[in-house]
């Protein structure tokens, strides 16, 4: 008689073991792929990141882009309405480091309120940094209808999920406030930027007075493109007209007296000057240079758009800008597209050493 007990066939054990492995692999890879489609925004997620996503949830960057476009346009409606009423309630928030008035108007405040609450209501778990103070007692809940516009769906064909905690949104409710008060409407933009782990990944720049909107997502798509050629040798350089600092001296010293300088308002406007923008009021330039202190809501959207189109925005020393933490950057700005950006950095004088 055979001994009592269960006989395990070696083949049965092997099949059982392999099946178990298959199930484990399926669960593990499916879970990570679903939660972290980081599409080149960083390396494979570390074990600890699963915890982060589980706490704050994930957000879809394609949905964020749809809301960002809507927010920039709704904010732009406020900007236009206030300008057309001619009652701006212009105030000074203080002085910039260089002693210029840091201005604010009803256009800034009302646009800020629309843009902030639209984004905050749609994405309550993400960090939003905005130029103007948000008055919690003056809350306005605008509900997004969850529709993604066709032009976005056409370019970006799948959702792009990232952990909510990795996201920082930057809102500029009215860029070129100084020019807005002077009724130089062409320079005015509203902007939204989304950074993931500090890297700018999507940007929206809207011109309320031309009703033109540019958007782009890194590794996603865009509704705007670079021009076909740029003059690298004697570039046309677009610079600030109201926060210029020593920018003229720096550019002429670097590129020679033949180079033409275009003074213009707004960081959003100046980035659009580097692109192929079908707007009659938009000037064109080959490079954008800024030498004074500047805030991240002024530059993040432009940085994301340039990066998505293969261009660059860095400090004058060529350092990448991180869009988390502090609001401002000290090292000036150099923005270029379809040029050898590092060669341009090497050409520029070291601002700290040269005392500019
Ligand atoms: N030195 C500085 N200090 C503070 N803000 C500055 C600055 N230089 C530029 N900016 C801000 O950057 C934006 C673009 O500047 P410019 O038009 O001079 O190129 C403007 O944003 P806002 O209009 O949103 O305040 C301006 O206030
Ligand atoms: Mg601004």
TrEMBL record:
GO cellular component, one term: trans-Golgi network membrane
Keyword Membrane part of the UniProt annotation: yes
Domain of life: Eukaryota
Keywords assigned: Acetylation, Glycoprotein, Golgi apparatus, Hydrolase, Magnesium, Membrane, Metal-binding, Signal-anchor, Transmembrane, Transmembrane helix
Positions annotated to bind Mg(2+): 131, 172, 174-175, 298
E.C. numbers: 3.1.3.7
Subcellular location(s) per record: Golgi apparatus, trans-Golgi network membrane
GO molecular function per UniProt: 3'(2'),5'-bisphosphate nucleotidase activity; 3',5'-nucleotide bisphosphate phosphatase activity; 3'-nucleotidase activity; metal ion binding
Pfam families, sorted: Inositol_P (PF00459)
Names of the cofactor(s): Mg(2+)
Family: Belongs to the inositol monophosphatase superfamily.
Physiological role: Exhibits 3'-nucleotidase activity toward adenosine 3',5'-bisphosphate (PAP), namely hydrolyzes adenosine 3',5'-bisphosphate into adenosine 5'-monophosphate (AMP) and a phosphate. May play a role in the formation of skeletal elements derived through endochondral ossification, possibly by clearing adenosine 3',5'-bisphosphate produced by Golgi sulfotransferases during glycosaminoglycan sulfation. Has no activity toward 3'-phosphoadenosine 5'-phosphosulfate (PAPS) or inositol phosphate (IP) substrates including I(1)P, I(1,4)P2, I(1,3,4)P3, I(1,4,5)P3 and I(1,3,4,5)P4.
Protein name: Golgi-resident adenosine 3',5'-bisphosphate 3'-phosphatase
Organism per entry: Mus caroli (Ryukyu mouse)
